[in-house]
Amino acid sequence: MSSPTESRRYSTALLLPLFSVALFAQHAPLLQLPYFWDEAGYYIPAARDLLLTGSVIPHSTPSNAHPPLVMAYLALAWKLIGFSPVVTRTAMLLIAALSLLGVFRLAQRVANTEVAIGSVICTACYPVFFSQGSLAHVDLAAAGFTFWGMLAYVEHRRFGTALWFSLAVLTKETAILAPLALFGWELLSCRGPWPGLNSAGKEGHGPCPVVTRLALLVPLVPLGIWYGYHYLQTGFVFGNPEFFRYNVQATLRPLRIVLALGLRWWQVMGYLNLYFLTVATVLAMFRPPVRDGFEERERIALRVQFAFLAVILTYVLAMAVVGGAALSRYLLPVIPLIIIVCVSTLRRRVRMWWAVVGVVTLTFVVAWFVNPPYGFSFEDNLAYRDYIRLHQGAETYLEARYPMSRILTAWPASDEISRPYLGYVTRPMRVVRIDDFTAEQLLAANDLRSRFDVAVVFSTKYEPPHPWFERWRAWQQWKAEFFGYHRDVPPVAAAQLLGGQIVYEQHIKNQWVAVIEMERVEEAAKRPRRCHSEERSDEESALYCRSLALLGMTTSK
Q1: Which residues contact 11 (CB under 8 A, 6 or more apart)?
Q2: Which residues have C-beta within 8 Å of that of residue 81, sequence separation ≥ 6?
Q3: Helical pair 335-349 and 139-154, crossing angle rounded to 10 deg
Q4: In what order do the strands lie in the sheet with 430-434?
Q5: What is the spatial distance between Cα 110 and Cα 299, in angstroms, rounded to a whole number?
Q6: In angstroms, rounded to a whole number, what is the distance separating the alpha carbons of residues 63 and 53?
């Protein structure tokens, strides 16, 4: 393990600009993209409210009780430079660069500079870190502060430990998991046979001062103050009732917890080609350590590895219990810890370890562009760019052709066309909202025919061409019951169900969007609802027929 002096051999004044430039080069084509999904749904409106009113409690969107540090940072950037996606994404990339520097410093401190370089390259290219780098979410920022908190903890800097973890919890409340996990590990290790770290960073049986444990509990104070203030202002502690129900109350079911636990382990061990790294590490464990001269290459101190493991286990278990959407970005604070341990193991046991890390990095970059053969969130690779481009095209067409029309659609398009500051339209349009584009929702929308003139339908879930578990009916049922899964009706079938005709349609990599113009009621009534049509594929026809049959509608074969 390198000493603190060696760890700072490369100055922050050099590394932070270097990482910033590298990230800007990665994201240059993405900086002007409009806001996407949860950005548009919560974080940008909340930060904009803070900019306009000075209130840390949003009023244009229901408060989710997320601490306001990132929103305040964005509001300050907009105040100083101007309100635009370029400013927002630039500001978030600076946080991503600081996070990468935290990964570098932590890896350099617990291992060496070679491991730090390999870990930073893998982390920067891992698809979830890459895609989140310029998005206005809070998870990557919370992860970055957590890395710096872990570094301060390893170096026995109590004030730094308390400060960095406090910044993390003021970024996102779930960041409290890391210091609590380390606190639990401190209690366990001080009473067990595990070696501690002496002042030189080597394994030994050093003391376990109480002040170290107290520093890990300090972040509870600012988090408690924030929740107390939020309660006084809104009457709710943990966000609006719907947010709390979706993310906590609805998740506390034994079967869901078991299924979510499996998903979380997959996300930290194999998701989006991460299995190339973890499998290579497992195989490397069967090899003896490489010798440089007469000495074996050093490993990360066992106590540090166990501390990392405590944080990883705590996050995986906690995220299996809470969180309505099992998003991989929630695990960003721990995935780089796994990467650091894996890269260190490869260096210790494989002489050509750089080649292995290079192959792993290449698979990560491939995953930016190639969607996996299983369902995943658009925000986890460049699928989010495809989503934005599809919606930009459709909503530009919509505004040009139907500027005064009433639009039927679902979230987040409902926000995109009613809030011009999100970057999709130049003036707000009237919206009639439905929950999704299932057959049931679209047929129910027929009761609202007098309230809308045009519909915008789009894919809300990624449907792989050849999904791994499509034939396992139980898994499909569990996804629908526990994780909000549904099947969007394809555009042609959606037009039939709504009684309209498609006037605009675009597809990119199994994502699609369509604009449907409504026919007059008399004309729609004359059109037969045929299950099978040359306009639909066999799969679309089968889904359409099942939709009509389920709802008791007559079909013409």
Answers
A1: none
A2: 87
A3: 50
A4: 430-434, 406-410, 454-458, 511-518, 500-508
A5: 9
A6: 15
* pLDDT tens track for 352-404: 999 999 999 999 999 999 999 998 999 999 999 999 999 999 999 999 999 99
How many residues make up the chain in this entry?
557
- 488 vs 499: CA distance, rounded Å: 17
Average pLDDT taken over every residue of the chain: 89
Q: Give the list of residues 6+ apart from residue 77 with CB closer than 8 angstroms, or none.
A: 87, 88, 90, 91
| R_g of the chain, CA atoms, integer Å | 26
Grouping H, G, I as helix, E, B as strand and the rest as coil, residue 490 is coil
pLDDT at residue 212 greater than cutoff 90: no
CA torsion sign, 67 to 44 to 95 to 377? positive
Cα–Cα distance, 513 to 384 (Å, whole number): 14
pLDDT for the residue 538? 56
Amino acid at 270: G
Indicate if the pLDDT at residue 205 is higher than 60: no
Distance CA 402, CA 388 (A): 20
HEC string for 418-484: CCHHHCCCCCCCEEEEECCCCHHHHHHHHHHHHHCCEEEEECCCCCCCCCCCCCCHHHHHHHHHHCC
Give CA–CA dist 147/102, Å, rounded.
5
CA-CA distance, 170 to 224, in Å (whole number)? 10
291-292 and 295-296 as β-strands: parallel, antiparallel, unpaired? antiparallel
Q: Once rounded to an integer, what is the mean pLDDT over residues 425-437?
A: 94
* Domains parsed from the chain with CATH numbers: 4-379 (no CATH), 382-550 (3.40.50)
Strands (E) across 179-310 are located at: 196-197, 203-204, 291-292, 295-296
User: Contact, 39 vs 132, CB < 8 A?
Assistant: no
Tokens of 139: 């998870």
